[in-house]
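Notebook entry, structure prediction.
Reason for the run: the old model in the group folder had no record of what sequence produced it. Starting over properly, with the input documented here first.
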Amino acid sequence: MQKINFTSSSITSSRLIYGCMRIAGDNTPADKAKGKLALRAALEAGYNHFDHADIYGGGHCESLFGELLTELKQETPTIREQLIITSKAGIRFEPQRYDFSTDYLTTSVENSLKRLNVDYLDMFLLHRPDYLFNTEEVAQTFQQLKASGKVKHFGVSNFSPSQVSLLQSALDEPLLVNQIEINIHNISSLTDGSLDQCQQLGITPIAWCPLGGVAYPAWGNTFSTADEERIAAELARQGEQYNCSPWQLILAWLLKHPANICPIIGSTTPERIVAAKQALAIEYNHADWYRLLEARNGYAQP
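New structure, fully documented this time:
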């Protein structure tokens, strides 16, 4: 497994991050057992970075991870120190809203720590922008969480470049990551300045839903049948050339970008968790990157 150092930190993360959104399934014994097998497969494959959120599975995903971590500590007492554990907060329900208030963020972190059975988070991310957030209040909350030892580093998720700049202006330390949707369907980060800003500031972009539009429909899918056929044909051609599956090729397409995108792998199938690593070995070339973009857009660049 390739590793990447997050700028301005001591974090060395696996280039592929394991996403824990689905590990608890319906929280039945069978689904929980499947989730634990998936987590063990990820660990054995060299993933050391695990992505959570307070709302995933209504908290059951973090609890399941905590159960497994207890088991793993019996096998390897130092396992916690070998892992990068990230969680997110900011989305609330009843009524649905975003909330970056100190009370909510602090309580969310404390609850995540209990469920995960850990003393600290390596990274804590703001899940989605709260349009009413007060930058100074968030900065003070971050300072309190770090001073208490509950969080080591901070980042954001789904933030626009201007929102990143606004928050960063109030912080004494750099935001390490921006977790955003990046896939063949949603390429807005290529044009809205997100990836440019990541490179400029040393922020690592983490791609959620990296296989959207290929392995499964993308969020808010707008592809026509013709779009899908063009993309599938080019992926098939390149798949033969690189001796890989279309979904592995898409990961290589993302990994090619100089911003050092880290895709989140969310499969609970051990074979696919391991097979995702093949994308790291693909020597994907510049011309094919643009051929796939052309197939996606339906026109050449420029």
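Summary: The CA atoms of residues 215 and 260 lie 22 Å apart.
The old model has been moved to the deprecated folder.
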